[in-house]
Structure formats: C-alpha cells, structure tokens
C-alpha cells in the first residue's frame, strides 16, 4: 500500500491534537497494534479512512464552492435560474466512480476476512478456552491442565487460538491492541486467533452489554517470552497454597469457611470447590483485583469489605460481618498464594 | 394495578364534579371540550400535530437521559450514575429516540403534508390514522411509566437475549420494553399501511407516480419498508414476551433455545428501521433544497430510483450488525459487499442535491441551513458506515464509541436535521404563522456545532479502545479529553434545543401571520391557504407536471386548475373508539407487564368489544356544502 505512510502521518497528527498529551497508555489503542491481526486490521482501517476522506473532501469542496458561488445576492430576488432536468453523463460518473472505489475496498476486505479466520496449525499454536461470566473471565489451558481468571498469560510470537464460550449471557472478548473482538455465546463456541509480537500487558474489555457491571468486566493479556511463559505454566500447574505465616494459617481457615463456595483454591488442603467466582490459584501473581484495581493489601481489604463500591453490580457479597482481624488474615493468606 | 384503576375512576369522578356535576349536560360539555375534540379527531392535519407534540415530549425525556449519560462520562472514574441505573438510562434513551421520537416526528410531517402534496382531501383511512397515533402514544407512555412503576428496561435498545430474559433481567423492566414496543409497533404498522394506500389511491388527477414530490416518494418507500420490517419485530417481541411470561424458551439457551436467533430477528427489522427513519429525511431535503435554490430537483428520476434501491437493499444487510457473532467468513463477506453497495445510491443522492444547488439562487433560511448542514454531516456518517462494512476493521469498531459516533452522525445528521429542516419549512403551512428566523439560526448553529463537538471526538474514543455502553473508563488511556469535549458538545446541543422551544413558544403566543405560499414553493401544499382548510382542497386540483404549483405560477396562474366542479365534500366524523381501543391495549399491556394474566385479557376484551362496536357503526360522516366553502376556495 503506497499511500500508507502519508495516511499514518495524518492519523498521528490528528491523534496528537485529540489526545491529552503525555498520559496515553498505548496498550489499549487500535491505532497501535502489537500483533499481526491488529496490524492487518489497522491497514484496512487506514485504507478505508483514506478512501472515505477523499470522498468527504470531494463533497466538501464542491459543497463549499456551490454554497458560496450561488448564494442569492441582493437584487437577484426576482431572478429565476435555468431549470435543469439532469445530466446523464454526470449521473453515470458518480455512479461508476463510487463502484470502483468500493471494489478497491472490497477485495482486501474479503481476503483479510478469510485470512484472519483461518484455523491455526495445532502444533504451532496454543489453545486457550475463554469462559465469560457475569462479570469476570475464566481461562483454561486444556493442553497444560491449568486454570486462571481475569488475566491470561501467553507466549510472544505464537498464535493463540482462543475458544470462546459464555457461561450466562453474551459477552465479547476484545483486546484492542492485539486485534478485533468476537462474541462469547452461551449456546456455541466461537474462535478468535491472536498473537502478540512483544512482551507486555495488553488491556482487554468486554464489549457486549452484559448487565450492571459490564463497564468493569476487564481482563489483561500478559505476553511473555516463550521461556518465561513456560515457567509461568509450570508454576500454575502446582500452585503453592500453603500459608507462610500464622496470620496466613488463620486466613486459610477463614477462606475455607467463607469463600470456597464460590472460589476455587488448589493445593490448599480443602476440596478445590466453587466456580461462581474466579479461581484464586496463585492469586498473589495477579496484577489486579476483579480486573479493576491494583492488587495490593489496601485494595484487597477494600474489595473484601465493599466489593459493590469497587465494582458496582458484581456478584460478590460484602464480607463486612467479619472482624477487621479476620479480613486482614484472609487478605494475608491471599497475598501468600503463589 | 388495582390502585391504578381506582385512581383513574377517582380522577373521572373529580373531573365530573369539578366541571359542574354529572348531569344531562355533562356529556355535551365533554363533547364541546377542546380536549375531546383532539382525542376524537380524525383530521390528518390535527393528527400530524399530535404526532409532533408526542414526539416532542419524548424527545425532551430522551434528551434528558442522554444528558445524564454524558454527565456521568464527562470525567474518568466518575461516580454519578452507575451500574443498572446507567444501563436503564442508556436503554431508555436509545429505545425512546428510535421508536418514540425519530419516526413519530416524521409521521407528524407526513401526516400533514403528504395528502396536501398529492392533492387529496384526506388520508385513505382517517379512523386508522387516529388509532395509529393513539397506539403509538400509549406504547410510549407504557414504556416510560416504567421509570415510576417497577424499573425501566436495562438490556439496551437491542434487548439481546439471553441478557433480556428472566434469568438475567428479573422484574418488570424488559416486560415494559416488550409490551410498550409491541403496542407502539402496531400503531406504526397501521400508519404505514394508511400512507401506502393513501399514496396509491388518493392522488389527484394527473398526479402520476413520476410527478410525486420527493417527500411523498420517500414516505411511500418508507411505508413499504414498515410493511415488511415491522412484522418480524412483532413476531420477535411476541417470542420474547412468551419466553419471559410463559417460559417458552425460544431464546433461552438453558432451555434449548438459541440466543442468536433473536439477533437475526431483531436486525431483520432493525436495519430497515434505520432506512425507515432516514428516507423521509431525504425527502424533506429534496423538497427544501429545490425550493430554496429555486430549481427543480437535479436528476429527479435517479433520485426516485435511488430511494427505491436503498429501500430494497436495506433488507439485505442486517448481518453487518453481527460480524462478531461468529457466523463465519462467508456470511460476513456476503453481507459486507451488500452493505457497501448501499453507498452507491446514497452517493447518487448526495451529488444530485449538490447539483440542484449548482446554478441556483440559494436562500439561507433556517430550513435551508439545516438542509445544507445535513449534507456534510450525513456524508460523514455515511462514509463511516462503509468503513464499518469492512469486516476485519469492524471487528475493531464494533460495539465501540466509533459506532456510537457513526450512528449518531447518521441519525442526528440525517434524521434530526432533516426533521428540523422540515419543521421550519412547513411550520407556516401547518400553523399559519412564521417561526422566528433569528432564533432559528441560533438554534441551528448551537445545535450543529454542538453536534459535531459531541460526536466527532467519539470516533477517536472508539479507536483508543473505549467500548460503548460503559458507565466508566479509566484515566491514562487517552480517553479524558475526548470525553470531556463530547459532553461539552452535548450542552451546546441542549442550548440549541432550548432556542427551538423558546422559538415555538414565542410563535404560538405572537407569531407573524403567514401567507399560503411564503417560500415561493413548488409543490401543491403551497397552493392553498395556511393553515389549510379542514377539507384541504375545495376542488381537487388538476396536475399538469412535476412541481405542479411552480408550473402554474410560471404560466401566470394564481391557483391550481380544478379537476372537478365545486360540490359537496364528504368528511369523516370524529370518533372516540380509537382512544377507547387504545385504552384497552394499554390496560392489557400493563397487566402482562406485571404477570397479571386476568388484567391482560380484560384489556384485550375491551379491544374486542370496541372492534365489534366499530364493525357495526353506521356513521357515514357528513358533507360540507359549497356555500359554506365559497370564501375558502383555493386562494393563497
Ligand atoms: C441529544 C443528542 C444526543 C446525545 C448527546 C446522545 C448521546 C448518547 C449516548 C452518550 C449514548 C450512549 C452510548 C453508549 O454508551 O453506547 C447514546 C446511545 C444511543 N443513542 Fe443517542 N444521543 C443523542 C441523540 C440521539 C438521537 C436523536 C437518537 C435517535 C433518534 C439516538 C439514538 C441512540 C441509540 C439508538 C443509542 C444506543 C442505545 C443502546 O445502546 O441501547 N440518540 N446516545
Ligand atoms: Cu460482558
């Protein structure tokens, strides 16, 4: 595509004026793709923007000229302009030119649509099952027997085949900087193939209205170099859920009483249990709580006492009937889950 | 429920007592009351005015809702309106704007103007016309009382299953959506049929199809679309109602249903719906632009052809709302190409409008400002539409603010500007007074600049990763400035609308008298007095060409040549049955909303009784006689 760099300049320029300077975190922008799928899509976005800007410009120039030139001036009130019926040549012209422009657009559209939908070679790719719940994300790695939630780790440079399914209502899986979205339906699987070029954290969102906390149904894609990814998988296979301190031991007991109806914790000394909420395996390694606030002691305490204040509409009850010490013990234990 | 009935009965008693007691004269007094006159009217011009009032009322409500939404989104992590309440505002804003504002205000213009443009004395079915309005109004009312009784729907205006089903939306919210739209939808369907028959059957002698003004043409095509698009909606709403009330599991996946089917049904209706909205606006522009350029429409035939083609293609593209559903690349590309194809006839129209102005004498009245402002805004909305048809790109755009920007560009840039243009253009015809031009221009500029300021930045919000239908966003991703600008724009638009309201109030109180043909018009409606007499045309006019009235004026005539001698004119009588029947539907709807099957059927019983009464009614209307008409004869 020849005119691409010109277009890119145009976009960057517009972006610069329209973005508040300095504070842009690029990991959520369609305009800054970090993988081949997003790049292909961006190419088409540029191509179509280019063609369409051209159309708008042609219309705008004609329009401005006409509006200025043929304004009724004082003294012309009585005049009657020539009543033109039409002009076959012109009308054919503005039927044919758009058709040509659309063909230019349609051909790469069709090609890319088929390309990005191709099923990757199983030997070359990793499969991740994504299950959408109101309002959190479950991730399973069937090849490794590993489960996690709200944060999905992937190796760079490899195709990831996400198999998507909704547990309750329709959600949509969207990581803007890696590539376009796909719905999670309750009745059948869908597929989305993405790939990240370089390590980093990419923000993901639910893009289909799914209820009260839809706006906060976030997740993160965390891309590692392949070796680091393998280490992560290994650590997830046998998460270390033994408490490290007295307080943590107390926390373990309380989690067993209060939490595992909904949350699962492996290797913690009790049956793995519930899937109403995200699994808590290796919780200390998560960067965020519920996809919305940073994972630290203070935030975790706030979350336990008032989850609705943090993520309005989510399905976790407040544990404000526990004493401060008890909450603190639970928090301590969660932060010890590796 | 019971309290509601008691309240109504008490109100009736109070009304009777306060107006002088219930006695023999009571019914007479009621019949002379202005309210009774409006409730029972079957005059298409009055019904048109009712549509304008109803649409205006709902516009105020939905506008307020959008203002609240935008205030919440003004700053990142704002805590003004969250969660369910936000979703309710969002749903009600969208639903109200689409179903209760955009189409009804256009119906208002159509009702008054179309019969005048084709030289008819009335519409084909005056009784149905009145019924159509009341059903629309009752449906809208039912939807909006949800705010007070039991909670508004919150599953989005598209109300996707399974979110909209009982398991995930318990409570009456979505019931209001299903039943309110069902009732309003029957009204729309009835009105559509009425316009179709009117345009086919009631044209004055010589008014061939290829002499119809463009506004009538677009009304015709829109009505045909209504005829084909609303039945799927009706069916879909019934299925969803049955899923919610009787657990039929059409869409409930845990009962073996299929949620994707709802999306197909909804969009098979929903996509044509946007053309139903925008085509009449095209008609308004065509009329306004040719009038204020003093030129005949450039390429009339291709304009008509384009309208029909757009109408047809409108039914072929619904899947472009579903590119992310996972239907596969074959389905997606077929619908992508079909969607792109619509750009061609739309382009034809835009260039024809431009060339109509070329070589003309353009007068920038407020109506013309709105019309020319539309061209730019609509083209911008149209091109982003083509961008959305590029499937891989749409996987990024879909359900983001880019889409919000796109459809507001089309709907406000097309439909709302179109309506405003028509409103300023035809106001003198409808009410016989002039809206103030100075306030009109304030209205235009505030609204127009506010509109661009609100929605242009939203394209970037989408590209920067902001999904639509979210009540919050985080700082630090470049979303702050654009959101702030967008909200500021909304305030400007609101200020514009206040100018309009002020203008209307001012004009109602002390408007300047308008002559029959204030703009040097081209079409038939300008050949009679403003406002038109009850019977429109004392003698049905003879049409001799396109732009019939302009033609006569060019030949030095000051009135249309009559196609018939002066004679008695048949008029339909006012009728209260449409109102009563609507009351039945309303009660029935309210009953089903609250799972009260008895009340539901009670309401339906009222409907059936009124149907029965209507079937055996022996009122053939009345005649106005030429003597009474003498002074009202076709003068301008
Ligand atoms: C007064 C100017 C308006 C403003 C400021 C405005 C603003 C908004 C906002 C902020 C949203 C929510 C976007 C989201 O989060 O997805 C929205 C949605 C919507 N608006 Fe408007 N709007 C306006 C006028 C209109 C008009 C005139 C129409 C149609 C006739 C309309 C139709 C819709 C629809 C259909 C939705 C989608 C609702 C849904 O997602 O269920 N709006 N609008
Ligand atoms: Cu979701």
Could you describe the 3D structure shown?
The complex is a heterodimer of chains A (338) and B (636). Chain A is 38% helix and 20% strand. With 338 residues, chain A is an alpha+beta fold. In chain A, the strands form three sheets. A five-stranded mixed beta sheet of chain A has the order 3-2-1-5-8. A five-stranded mixed beta sheet of chain A has the order 4-10-9-6-7. The radius of gyration of chain A is 27 Å and the shape is elongated. The N terminus of chain A is likely disordered. Chain B has 636 residues and is mainly alpha-helical. Helices cover 67% and strands 2% of the residues of chain B. The termini of chain B are far apart. The interface between A and B is large, with 94 and 96 residues. Bound molecules: protoporphyrin IX containing FE (HEM) and copper (II) ion (CU). The site of protoporphyrin IX containing FE (HEM) has 24 residues of chain B, from helix 4, helix 5, helix 14 and helix 16.
Which key features would you list for this structure?
heterodimer; A: 338 residues; alpha+beta; 5-stranded mixed beta sheet; elongated; disordered N terminus; B: 636 residues; mainly alpha; two-stranded antiparallel ribbon; 20 helices; 67% helix; 2% strand; globular; binds protoporphyrin IX containing FE; binds copper (II) ion; respiratory chain (chain B); electron transport (chain B); membrane (chain B); copper (chain B); EC 7.1.1.9 (chain B)
How is this fold's topology laid out?
The complex is a heterodimer of chains A (338) and B (636).
Chain A: H1 4-18, H2 36-69, H3 88-117, E1 125-133, E2 136-141, E3 146-149, E4 151-155, E5 159-166, E6 171-175, E7 179-184, E8 190-194, E9 200-206, E10 218-224, H4 226-237, H5 246-258, E11 288-289, E12 293-294, H6 297-305, H7 307-310, H8 324-336
Parallel strand pairs in A: 1-5, 4-10
Antiparallel strand pairs in A: 1-2, 2-3, 5-8, 6-7, 6-9, 9-10, 11-12
Helix pairs in contact in A: 2-3, 5-8, 6-8
Chain B: H1 2-18, H2 24-32, H3 34-40, H4 44-72, H5 83-117, H6 126-144, H7 173-201, H8 214-246, H9 259-293, H10 300-313, H11 329-357, H12 366-389, H13 391-397, H14 401-431, E1 433-434, H15 437-463, H16 480-510, E2 512-513, H17 548-554, E3 569-571, H18 577-593, H19 597-615, E4 622-624, H20 626-629
Antiparallel strand pairs in B: 1-2, 3-4
Helix pairs in contact in B: 4-5, 4-6, 4-16, 5-6, 5-7, 5-9, 5-14, 6-7, 6-18, 7-8, 7-18, 8-9, 8-10, 9-11, 9-12, 9-14, 10-11, 11-12, 12-14, 12-15, 14-15, 15-16, 18-19
The complex binds protoporphyrin IX containing FE and copper (II) ion.
Protoporphyrin IX containing FE (HEM) binds at residues 63, 66, 69-70, 90-91, 93-94, 97-98, 101-102, 156-157, 404, 408, 411-412, 416, 454, 468-469, 490, 493 of chain B.
